[in-house]
């Protein structure tokens, strides 16, 4: 039971204090209890708390969109604000379908995604996801026109005899083969997390991979949807994670860092190429939610984003991320259970193995990663556990995603507690 929170500290009802090293689920980018954001919330509530967007708009929604899309960054021209990452992905899938419908390419009904991906809990977003545990009760219940290719996950999927360039080439060949097998004229979009999220654990793509994906999508007239729900809005050390890949998506989704935990908000951002087709056709996105572009949420998110830009927190995230990486590698590389340390910015995962050389995983029944998380929590640090990391059935990791305002002293505490928690579990299970 959390009674209050300030900065990176969660104050529990039992009197304990926990250091939030994962931002909840990589959400709290400016920390908890920011009074400037609270005042923005109250100001908006005193003006207008809700209107229906079928008939009305508000300065809060327009100001947030204008702030994010000033100068059409990367060609992104329109924003559609909803309440969650799942809603954002669902909306992106529908927008992509409408784009082709209005172009007269009505045979395009298929999405290609990747294994070990996660895009949300609604039926459409879950259908393009590959988090097997979350899909168990819903087999044959979701959208059927979806196929999955291998994840861009070098630690597990690059063959020993392959170079990184060979691995990238093989992934791209597999994707093109899938497009051709489905029929390129039937594919709406390729959907991918720019940097893998909680399912596989902060997996950056190999060099050149997303540029190659972009080229294949262009070759066959397929849209590229990048899911930055978790890895975007500065989390990886640039505002958009795709900036580091030198690619431009047709549609991008953002959520967690958009409101920073102060409100329920997510966004679909559409490139000019998509917007122009809709504008020249029906001129209306045939989709909607009651609470889309909610005024209080938009005003709150705007305050978060203004703080992010004004205080140069994305650059701070990049700098503190390099510090966190160095500390993790120095403290954990010698731990026999630590197989891989990976990430970008303040978005890092530690993957566990029973044997470093063979990369053998722990028996899933042990729940090694969850045990590390629980031990760390008892020591006063909250980390985010992951399981079924490798293939939906086995593998463990923990995820670290502290606020961009984290101090070096707090990083030292996080790394120290994580190392101790791992060592305690190693003594039992290795």
TrEMBL record:
Molecular function terms, GO-annotated: pyridoxal phosphate binding; transaminase activity
One Pfam family linked to the record: Aminotran_3
Superkingdom of source: Eukaryota
Sorted UniProt keywords: Pyridoxal phosphate
Family statement drawn from the similarity comment of this UniProt entry: Belongs to the class-III pyridoxal-phosphate-dependent aminotransferase family.
One CC-aspect GO term: cytosol
Organism: Akanthomyces muscarius
UniProt xrefs under NCBIfam families: PRK07483.1
PANTHER family, sorted: AMINOTRANSFERASE, AMINOTRANSFERASE CLASS-III
Descriptive protein name: Aminotransferase
Cofactor: pyridoxal 5'-phosphate
């Amino acid at each position: 039971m959390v009674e209050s929170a300030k900065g990176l500290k969660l104050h529990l009802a039992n009197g304990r204090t926990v250091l939030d090293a994962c931002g909840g689920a990589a959400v709290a980018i400016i920390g908890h209890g920011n009074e400037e954001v609270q005042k923005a919330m109250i100001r908006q509530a005193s003006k207008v708390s809700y209107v229906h967007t079928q008939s009305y708009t508000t300065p809060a929604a327009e100001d947030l969109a204008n702030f994010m899309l000033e100068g059409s960054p990367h060609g992104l021209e329109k924003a559609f604000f909803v309440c969650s990452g799942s809603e954002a992905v669902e909306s992106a899938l529908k927008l992509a379908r409408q784009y082709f419908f209005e172009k007269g390419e009505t045979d395009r009904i298929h999405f290609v995604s990747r294994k070990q991906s996660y895009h949300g809990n609604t039926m459409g977003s879950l259908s393009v996801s590959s988090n097997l545990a979350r899909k168990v009760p819903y087999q044959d219940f979701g959208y059927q026109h979806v196929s999955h290719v291998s994840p861009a996950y070098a630690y597990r999927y690059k063959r020993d005899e392959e170079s990184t360039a060979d691995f990238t080439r093989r992934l791209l060949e597999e994707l093109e083969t899938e497009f051709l097998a489905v029929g390129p004229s039937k594919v709406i979009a390729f959907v991918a997390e720019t940097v893998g999220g909680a399912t596989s654990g902060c997996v950056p793509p190999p060099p050149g991979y997303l540029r190659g994906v972009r080229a294949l999508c262009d070759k066959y007239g397929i849209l590229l949807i990048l899911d930055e729900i978790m890895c975007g809005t500065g989390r990886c050390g640039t505002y958009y994670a795709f900036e580091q890949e030198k690619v431009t998506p047709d549609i991008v989704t953002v959520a967690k860092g958009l409101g920073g935990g102060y409100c329920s908000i997510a966004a679909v951002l559409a490139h000019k190429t998509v917007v122009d087709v809709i504008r020249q056709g029906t001129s209306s996105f045939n989709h909607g939610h009651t609470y889309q572009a909610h005024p209080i949420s938009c005003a709150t998110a705007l305050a978060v984003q203004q703080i992010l830009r004004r205080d140069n927190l994305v650059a701070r995230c990049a700098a503190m991320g390099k510090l966190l990486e160095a500390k993790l590698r120095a403290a954990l590389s010698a731990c026999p259970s630590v197989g891989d340390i990976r990430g970008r910015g303040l978005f890092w995962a530690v993957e566990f193995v029973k044997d470093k050389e063979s990369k053998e995983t722990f028996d899933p029944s042990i729940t090694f990663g969850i045990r590390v998380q629980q031990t760390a929590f008892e020591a006063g640090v909250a980390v985010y556990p992951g399981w079924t990391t490798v293939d939906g059935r086995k593998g463990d990791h923990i995820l670290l995603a502290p606020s961009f305002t984290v101090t070096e002293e707090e990083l030292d505490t996080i790394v120290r507690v994580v190392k101790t928690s791992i060592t305690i579990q190693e003594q039992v299970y290795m």
